[in-house]
Design a protein that fits this description.
GO molecular function, one term: zinc ion binding
Catalytic activity: L-histidinol + 2 NAD(+) + H2O = L-histidine + 2 NADH + 3 H(+)
Pfam families: Histidinol_dh
Helix content: 40-55%
Structural class: alpha/beta
CATH topology of the largest domain: Rossmann fold
Distance between the termini: 78 Å
Order of helices and strands: EHHHHHEEEHEHEHEHEEHEHHEHEEHEHH
CATH class of the largest domain: Alpha Beta
Pathway: Amino-acid biosynthesis; L-histidine biosynthesis; L-histidine from 5-phospho-alpha-D-ribose 1-diphosphate: step 9/9
Protein name: Histidinol dehydrogenase
Strand content: 15-25%
CATH architecture of the largest domain: 3-Layer(aba) Sandwich
CATH superfamily of the largest domain: Nitrogenase molybdenum iron protein domain
């Protein structure tokens, strides 16, 4: 279930075993393209048809009523409400540190240059539903959008075959102050908000995780709207030395594996003894887990223990994998932090388990997957703002530099560019 590889001797073997892909099967592509095209053409009717087909109900209303939200909130366990409120405060507090400010400066000769930061006006935040509900995803998407200053925030999440949305999601929405919630999901939801329908507004950006149909739909509508990323199955890398607690390592690997049979969980260690302890404990404990079948499939297909010679090699392997989550179960974890170049989120020390980041600590849990941490970042306030350059040139500065600028345009063969400058020089 959890093979052990030696690095660098078996590097090619474990890389082949752990290969990840962001490609989609042809049948998935065909289904998604048909849905997008149909919703773009038929609007609300197509959206209702697909909601009935995939969710088992043709809802009388697209939106959750205020009464439904209020009832869910009043009926909720108070301890659950409190932890949602604490988590929301933590997430919002973290994202406030990300706010970028507009800036202007004088470049000389009465020239002013700068950059203006403005929020995106209208966003749709997708919250997965169906087999499981994720109020944490709602908080993680809503908080940075609110901090950024987005004016219109819409939530969409699948309803069940009775037309009801998860009460946990509704309570999280109430805590976050969101009352515009639509009760449909899938590729059809992405299409509706990307193109707009009679009842659904076209937005400027779509964020939030979903299944492969949602992920591909987001990819396909990019350009009509902005998106955050194309999320793949969850993944964790645990770097552990000989002092690590095997139970901590195994349960943290299980925590990722229980998401999805395609999830990946890897332990990298410089201790052959710990490697074997982790493998044996995983075999011993897997049947005690409620989602044991999912965990077993994930660890068989995408799990591994990699034995390296030292922590330098451990960092090298981790950088190669560029994981979504990276945990450091090592003494003096801060000492190797500078050697770790690629990871969505890094959890420092034995007591910083990934679960804390998923729900409560504050940094966003919407992270780059499939090795894209090499060039993508976690969801942040920066995903909900845009930047405009400001250029205020003076006549004096154009008189000084204009001919050089026009000559630059001449070298690119763009006559009108050059003449636009020279016309102004003649006036001067």
């Amino acid at each position: 279930m959890l093979p052990i590889f030696s690095y660098p001797e078996e590097q090619s073997d474990f890389q082949r075993h752990l290969s990840r892909s962001v490609t989609f099967e042809p049948e998935v592509q065909r289904v998604v393209q048909d849905i997008l095209s149909d919703v773009a053409q038929r609007g609300d009717v197509a959206l209702l048809d697909y909601t009935e087909k995939f969710q088992g109900i043709r809802p009388e209303a697209f939106m959750v009523s205020q009464e439904e939200i209020e009832q869910a909130y009043l009926a909720a366990d108070r301890a659950f409400v409190v932890v949602l409120e604490e988590a929301y405060d933590n997430i919002t507090g973290f994202h406030r540190h990300e706010i970028d400010k507009s800036f202007f400066y004088e470049a000389g000769n009465r020239v002013i240059l700068g950059q203006r930061v403005t929020p995106i006006e209208r966003v749709m935040l997708y919250v997965p539903g169906g087999k499981a509900a994720y109020p944490s995803s709602l908080l993680m998407n809503v908080a940075p959008a609110q901090v950024a200053g987005v004016k219109e925030i819409f939530i969409t999440t699948p309803c069940d075959d009775n037309g009801n949305v998860s009460e946990h999601v509704l309570v999280a929405a109430k805590v976050a102050g969101i009352d515009t919630i639509y009760k449909f999901g899938g590729a059809q939801a992405v299409a509706a908000f990307a193109y707009g329908t009679e009842s659904v507004p076209k937005v400027d950006k779509i964020t939030g995780p979903g299944n492969k149909y949602v992920a591909l739909a987001k990819k396909e509508v990019f350009g009509h709207v902005s998106i955050d990323s194309i999320a793949g199955p969850s993944e964790v890398v645990v770097i552990a030395d000989r002092h690590a607690d095997p139970e901590f390592v195994v349960l943290d690997m299980f925590a990722q594996a229980e998401h999805d049979p395609d999830a990946a969980a890897v332990c990298i260690t410089d201790s052959a003894e710990l490697a074997e302890a982790v493998r044996l404990l995983a075999l011993e404990k897997v049947d005690t887990m409620v989602r044991s079948e999912v965990i077993r499939k994930a660890l068989t297909a995408n799990g591994a223990v990699v034995v390296v010679r030292d922590m330098a090699e451990a960092c090298e392997v981790s950088n190669m994998l560029a994981p979504e989550h990276l945990e450091l179960h090592v003494r003096n974890s801060w000492e190797i932090l500078s050697d770790l170049k690629h990871a969505g989120a890094i959890f420092m020390g034995d007591y910083s388990c990934e679960t804390i980041g998923d729900y409560y600590a504050g940094p966003n849990h919407t992270l780059p997957t499939n090795g894209t941490a090499r060039f993508f970042s976690p969801l942040s306030v920066r995903d909900f703002v845009k930047y405009s350059s400001i250029i205020s040139y003076s006549a004096q500065e154009l008189a000084r530099t204009g001919e050089r600028i026009a000559a630059f345009a001449d070298h690119e063969g763009l006559q009108a560019h050059a003449e636009a400058v020279r016309a102004r020089l003649r006036k001067l």
